[in-house]
Each structure stands twice: as structure tokens, then as C-alpha cells.
Design a protein that fits this description.
This protein has 130 residues and is mainly beta. It has one helix and eleven strands. The strands form two sheets. Strands 2, 4, 5, 6, 9, 10 and 11 form a seven-stranded mixed beta sheet that branches. A four-stranded antiparallel beta sheet has the order 1-3-8-7, with no helix packed on it.
Length: 130
Amino acid sequence: QSQLVESGGGLVQPGGSLRLSCAAHGFTLDDYGITWFRLAPGKEREGVSCISSNGHDTYYTDSVKGRFTISRDNANNTVYLQMNSLKPEDTAVYYCAAVPPITTVQHMCTTLHLREYDYWGQGTQVAVSS
């Protein structure tokens, strides 16, 4: 069964760090661009960071620039999101999703319709609290 599986979430104090992983099973991840979304209670889904299929292009929403880093290891079929200097407002369920290389990373993270994505993970909870 082809799927994405996220891991690495948890509870961390403000200022702390987490690294999320998005592993592909049953398909080749390097055929796809990846978006990390997050969904917090009472808020709309937000595209946090995106990376192109070859890893050359990345995009970050303004609120995470300078704190989060997206990367990919196609040999291991995994995409990562390194999150540093975490803030309480980063608390959310984080999802990764895979889309064929049909558009720019900025479009992936902002206005691309969700129906364009082929695969979704189940989500991993990130909680930032003292």
C-alpha cells in the first residue's frame, strides 16, 4: 500500500527543536514535490514549507522563515522538517503531502488545490508549551 508516514512530533518547550520526518512507502518519493501543512484548532490549514522533487527549490511561509528547514533524502525516500526556536503558535498537527512536479514550490505552499496531491500522511502532533 502506497502511503506517507510522518513521525517526530511531540511536546517541547518554547525555544526548543523538533525534527519531523515524512517517509514514503510503496512509491518513489523523488518523483514528487512535498508540502508540509499544519492544522491548528480554530485555524485554517496552512502550507508551512515546500520542497521540489529534486530538492533544488524550497519555500517557507513567513512565520517560520529562519527557524524551519526543509530537506529531502531521496535515497532514503524521506523528507524532513527541522524546526528550531519553536513558539507556542507552532502548535498544530503537521501533515506531509506529495504532489507531482506540476508547479512551483510557492504555488504548492499557498494556492494549489488539495485535489492535486496524490498522497497524504496521517499527521503528527507538535505541541509547544512550558
